[in-house]
Amino acid sequence: MSYDTPKDRAPLPLLGAVPEVPVERADAARNRRLLLDTAQRLVREKGVRSLTMDELARRAGVGKGTVFRRFGTRSGLLVALLDHSEQKFQGAFLFGPPPLGPGAPPVRRLVAFGRARLLDIEVEGELHRAAELGEAEQRYRNPPYNVSRVHVTTLLREAGAPGDPRLLADALLAPLAAALVMHQLHDLGYTRDEIADNWETLARRASVPE
To answer: What does the record give as the DNA-binding region (predicted)?
Structure first.
Protein backbone atom coordinates (compact mmCIF):
# COMPACT_ATOMS: atom_id res chain seq x y z
CA MET A 1 0.00 0.00 0.00
CA SER A 2 1.33 3.43 -0.93
CA TYR A 3 0.76 6.45 1.24
CA ASP A 4 2.21 8.98 -1.18
CA THR A 5 0.37 12.30 -1.06
CA PRO A 6 0.16 14.86 -3.88
CA LYS A 7 3.57 16.37 -4.60
CA ASP A 8 2.21 19.93 -4.38
CA ARG A 9 0.98 19.43 -0.84
CA ALA A 10 3.17 21.02 1.82
CA PRO A 11 4.68 18.65 4.43
CA LEU A 12 2.70 18.14 7.60
CA PRO A 13 4.73 20.38 9.91
CA LEU A 14 3.55 19.36 13.36
CA LEU A 15 2.54 15.74 13.01
CA GLY A 16 5.87 13.93 12.92
CA ALA A 17 8.13 12.42 15.54
CA VAL A 18 11.14 14.72 15.25
CA PRO A 19 11.57 18.39 16.16
CA GLU A 20 10.81 21.02 13.56
CA VAL A 21 13.85 21.85 11.44
CA PRO A 22 14.66 24.90 9.31
CA VAL A 23 12.99 25.01 5.89
CA GLU A 24 15.10 23.14 3.32
CA ARG A 25 15.80 24.17 -0.25
CA ALA A 26 13.58 22.32 -2.72
CA ASP A 27 16.46 20.24 -4.10
CA ALA A 28 17.68 19.34 -0.60
CA ALA A 29 14.16 18.33 0.41
CA ARG A 30 13.84 16.14 -2.71
CA ASN A 31 17.16 14.44 -1.97
CA ARG A 32 16.16 13.81 1.63
CA ARG A 33 12.83 12.35 0.50
CA LEU A 34 14.64 10.12 -2.01
CA LEU A 35 16.92 8.77 0.73
CA LEU A 36 14.02 8.15 3.10
CA ASP A 37 11.88 6.48 0.42
CA THR A 38 14.85 4.24 -0.39
CA ALA A 39 15.36 3.47 3.29
CA GLN A 40 11.69 2.61 3.69
CA ARG A 41 11.80 0.21 0.75
CA LEU A 42 14.92 -1.43 2.18
CA VAL A 43 13.27 -1.94 5.59
CA ARG A 44 10.13 -3.34 3.97
CA GLU A 45 12.15 -5.75 1.84
CA LYS A 46 14.77 -6.96 4.33
CA GLY A 47 13.91 -5.67 7.81
CA VAL A 48 15.29 -2.86 9.92
CA ARG A 49 18.57 -4.69 10.65
CA SER A 50 19.48 -4.42 6.98
CA LEU A 51 19.33 -0.63 7.12
CA THR A 52 22.92 0.57 7.41
CA MET A 53 24.41 3.81 6.20
CA ASP A 54 26.53 1.88 3.68
CA GLU A 55 23.59 -0.06 2.27
CA LEU A 56 21.37 3.01 2.04
CA ALA A 57 24.10 4.88 0.16
CA ARG A 58 24.53 1.95 -2.23
CA ARG A 59 20.81 1.54 -2.87
CA ALA A 60 20.24 5.27 -3.33
CA GLY A 61 23.30 5.66 -5.58
CA VAL A 62 24.97 8.33 -3.45
CA GLY A 63 28.20 8.58 -1.47
CA LYS A 64 28.19 7.40 2.13
CA GLY A 65 29.26 10.87 3.20
CA THR A 66 25.99 12.25 1.82
CA VAL A 67 23.99 9.92 4.07
CA PHE A 68 26.08 10.81 7.14
CA ARG A 69 25.79 14.55 6.45
CA ARG A 70 22.02 14.23 6.12
CA PHE A 71 21.28 12.05 9.17
CA GLY A 72 24.42 12.08 11.31
CA THR A 73 24.13 8.55 12.69
CA ARG A 74 22.13 5.41 12.09
CA SER A 75 19.96 6.36 15.07
CA GLY A 76 19.29 9.71 13.46
CA LEU A 77 18.35 7.92 10.25
CA LEU A 78 15.91 5.63 12.08
CA VAL A 79 14.21 8.57 13.81
CA ALA A 80 13.90 10.41 10.48
CA LEU A 81 12.57 7.28 8.77
CA LEU A 82 9.89 6.73 11.41
CA ASP A 83 8.85 10.37 11.06
CA HIS A 84 8.76 9.97 7.26
CA SER A 85 6.61 6.85 7.54
CA GLU A 86 4.25 8.48 10.03
CA GLN A 87 3.79 11.55 7.85
CA LYS A 88 2.94 9.38 4.84
CA PHE A 89 0.38 7.49 6.93
CA GLN A 90 -1.10 10.70 8.34
CA GLY A 91 -1.27 12.24 4.89
CA ALA A 92 -3.16 9.20 3.64
CA PHE A 93 -5.87 9.25 6.30
CA LEU A 94 -6.17 13.05 6.39
CA PHE A 95 -5.99 13.85 2.67
CA GLY A 96 -5.82 10.61 0.68
CA PRO A 97 -8.52 8.79 -1.27
CA PRO A 98 -11.32 6.89 0.47
CA PRO A 99 -11.92 4.68 2.28
CA LEU A 100 -8.82 5.59 4.31
CA GLY A 101 -9.13 9.27 3.43
CA PRO A 102 -12.15 11.58 3.38
CA GLY A 103 -15.24 10.64 1.39
CA ALA A 104 -16.23 7.29 2.90
CA PRO A 105 -18.63 6.64 5.82
CA PRO A 106 -16.89 6.97 9.20
CA VAL A 107 -17.00 3.27 10.09
CA ARG A 108 -15.46 2.30 6.74
CA ARG A 109 -12.73 4.88 7.31
CA LEU A 110 -12.15 3.54 10.81
CA VAL A 111 -11.78 -0.02 9.52
CA ALA A 112 -9.44 1.15 6.75
CA PHE A 113 -7.35 3.02 9.33
CA GLY A 114 -6.80 -0.12 11.40
CA ARG A 115 -6.00 -2.31 8.42
CA ALA A 116 -3.53 0.24 7.03
CA ARG A 117 -1.80 0.58 10.40
CA LEU A 118 -1.49 -3.20 10.70
CA LEU A 119 0.06 -3.41 7.24
CA ASP A 120 2.61 -0.80 8.28
CA ILE A 121 3.46 -2.77 11.40
CA GLU A 122 3.76 -6.06 9.51
CA VAL A 123 6.39 -4.62 7.16
CA GLU A 124 8.03 -2.04 9.46
CA GLY A 125 7.21 -3.55 12.83
CA GLU A 126 10.72 -3.53 14.28
CA LEU A 127 11.02 0.18 13.57
CA HIS A 128 7.69 0.99 15.22
CA ARG A 129 8.35 -1.31 18.17
CA ALA A 130 11.75 0.24 18.79
CA ALA A 131 10.16 3.68 18.82
CA GLU A 132 7.46 2.58 21.27
CA LEU A 133 9.98 1.01 23.64
CA GLY A 134 12.24 4.04 23.45
CA GLU A 135 9.46 6.45 24.36
CA ALA A 136 7.36 4.28 26.67
CA GLU A 137 6.62 7.03 29.17
CA GLN A 138 5.89 9.65 26.49
CA ARG A 139 4.06 7.53 23.94
CA TYR A 140 0.61 8.89 24.74
CA ARG A 141 1.83 12.49 24.65
CA ASN A 142 3.74 12.37 21.38
CA PRO A 143 2.37 13.99 18.20
CA PRO A 144 1.94 10.82 16.06
CA TYR A 145 -0.16 9.06 18.70
CA ASN A 146 -2.28 12.13 19.34
CA VAL A 147 -2.93 12.74 15.65
CA SER A 148 -4.22 9.16 15.35
CA ARG A 149 -6.21 9.56 18.57
CA VAL A 150 -7.92 12.74 17.33
CA HIS A 151 -8.67 11.08 13.98
CA VAL A 152 -10.21 7.95 15.53
CA THR A 153 -12.13 10.06 18.07
CA THR A 154 -13.60 12.15 15.24
CA LEU A 155 -14.69 9.06 13.28
CA LEU A 156 -16.32 7.56 16.38
CA ARG A 157 -18.23 10.79 17.00
CA GLU A 158 -19.37 10.91 13.38
CA ALA A 159 -20.54 7.29 13.62
CA GLY A 160 -22.58 8.08 16.74
CA ALA A 161 -20.62 5.65 18.91
CA PRO A 162 -21.88 5.30 22.49
CA GLY A 163 -19.70 6.25 25.44
CA ASP A 164 -16.80 8.67 25.58
CA PRO A 165 -15.25 8.67 22.08
CA ARG A 166 -11.84 9.72 23.45
CA LEU A 167 -11.66 6.70 25.76
CA LEU A 168 -12.97 4.46 22.99
CA ALA A 169 -10.25 5.79 20.69
CA ASP A 170 -7.55 4.81 23.20
CA ALA A 171 -9.16 1.38 23.55
CA LEU A 172 -9.12 0.85 19.77
CA LEU A 173 -5.57 2.12 19.33
CA ALA A 174 -4.19 -0.14 22.08
CA PRO A 175 -4.46 -3.35 19.96
CA LEU A 176 -2.50 -1.58 17.19
CA ALA A 177 0.61 -1.16 19.35
CA ALA A 178 3.56 -2.53 17.42
CA ALA A 179 4.92 -4.61 20.31
CA LEU A 180 1.59 -6.44 20.69
CA VAL A 181 1.05 -6.92 16.95
CA MET A 182 4.59 -8.27 16.48
CA HIS A 183 4.00 -10.71 19.36
CA GLN A 184 0.76 -11.87 17.76
CA LEU A 185 2.40 -12.26 14.35
CA HIS A 186 5.70 -13.88 15.30
CA ASP A 187 5.11 -15.59 18.65
CA LEU A 188 1.45 -16.58 18.50
CA GLY A 189 1.36 -17.31 14.78
CA TYR A 190 -1.62 -15.18 13.77
CA THR A 191 -1.74 -13.71 10.28
CA ARG A 192 -2.17 -10.01 9.64
CA ASP A 193 -5.58 -10.70 8.10
CA GLU A 194 -6.73 -12.52 11.25
CA ILE A 195 -5.57 -9.66 13.46
CA ALA A 196 -7.19 -7.11 11.13
CA ASP A 197 -10.49 -9.01 11.01
CA ASN A 198 -10.58 -9.13 14.79
CA TRP A 199 -9.77 -5.40 15.02
CA GLU A 200 -12.55 -4.67 12.51
CA THR A 201 -15.02 -6.56 14.71
CA LEU A 202 -13.98 -4.44 17.71
CA ALA A 203 -14.17 -1.21 15.71
CA ARG A 204 -17.63 -1.98 14.32
CA ARG A 205 -19.00 -2.96 17.74
CA ALA A 206 -17.57 0.18 19.32
CA SER A 207 -19.17 2.30 16.59
CA VAL A 208 -22.74 0.99 16.90
CA PRO A 209 -25.04 3.73 18.27
CA GLU A 210 -27.14 2.91 21.32
So the answer is: 52-71
